[in-house]
Amino acid sequence: MRALIVDDEPLARRGVVLRLRRFKDVEIVGECGDGQSAVERILERSPDVVFLDIQMPGMDGFEVLRALPVKDLPAVIFLTAYEQHVLRAFDVHALHYLLKPVDDTRFAAALARARALLDSKQKADMAQRVMKMLDGTSDGYATRFTVQTGSRIQIVIAEDVEWIGAAGDYVELHVNGCSFLLRETMASLEQRLDPAKFIRIHRSRIVRSKAILELRSIENREFTVKLSDGSEHRSSRTYSDRVDRWLSSGRT
Predict the structure, then answer these.
(1) Nearest CA to 5 among 24, 26, 32?
(2) Selection from 173, 178, 87, 164 nearest residue 133 by Cα
(3) Residues 6+ positions from 133 with CB-CB distance below 8 Å
(4) Which of these, 140, 146, 145, 242, lies nearest to 192 by C-alpha position?
């Protein structure tokens, strides 16, 4: 099995190299410290598996994969320092990842799964899962958002979002007590969200339907909407048809 290692940190690359040398069936075909070099090496050397860091300056790991034709996608084991709740993005799409600092047992398990992907059909399935994650959609609706927080790129799972507020030229995603800015309008975001899971209740508010705990009537078909995170939001008559449809559907 031919392996390529992509990480902008030399010590991280060295750690993967040392672990791979324990496996006699693995040939290391190169190391890369940036995304552009990674794309070139993958196309030149056709590795079976790539250990790919996500957070790199310039071209990040996701952009590396987007730059490759689907037919040239190798098996991918993501290297990441992301927090645990963010890793749901990989779990949802059944993709392999190693959380830094890397654990030897998980490393061996990830490599074993990569070996299984050498079968052409399984490799094709993996490529489709990778592309689905990069696209961030399911049945035409967004399943995740990629947001910038300082020098970090984070993944926010759509179904983890409790509510969304307008914030000038941005929208603010509220998740587990944290908020993330996404450069998009409320109108365009509403079109990308599954209406069975999210409801626009106000020009400046979208809420996840499963997060709704209580509706208190105010007047003229307006409500105070209480969510599971304790926040309260006022709905407006302009969007009362959305609330009415949700109430009549019986969805929770």
Answers:
(1) 32
(2) 87
(3) 89, 90, 92, 93, 95, 144
(4) 140
Residue 100 has pLDDT above 60, yes or no: yes
Q: pLDDT class for 251, splitting at 50, 70, 90?
A: low
Just give the CATH number of 2-135: 3.40.50.2300
Distance CA 129, CA 123 (A): 10
Distance CA 170, CA 91 (A): 28
Cα–Cα distances in angstroms (integers) from residue 73 to residues 18, 46, 55, 126, 127, in the given order: 24, 9, 19, 9, 6
Secondary structure (3-state) at 152: strand
Look up residue 102 and give its DSSP letter: P
Residues 87, 133 contacting (CB under 8 angstroms): no
Note whether 124 and 115 are within 8 A (CB). no
- Work out the number of other CB atoms within 10 angstroms of the CB of residue 66: 14
Model confidence pLDDT, tens digit, residues 147-164: 877 666 677 888 899 999
One CATH from 2.40.50.1020, 3.30.70.60, 3.40.50.980, 3.30.160.20 for 142-249: 2.40.50.1020
Condensed to tens digits (0 to 9), the pLDDT of residues 174-202 reads 998 999 998 889 998 998 899 999 999 99
**Which residue from 189, 178, 195, 158 is spatially nearest to 229, judged by alpha carbons?**
178
Model pTM above 0.70: no
Taking the C-alpha atoms of residue 164 and residue 198, their distance in angstroms, rounded to an integer, is 10
Instruction: Map out the domains of the chain as residue ranges.
Output: 2-135, 142-249
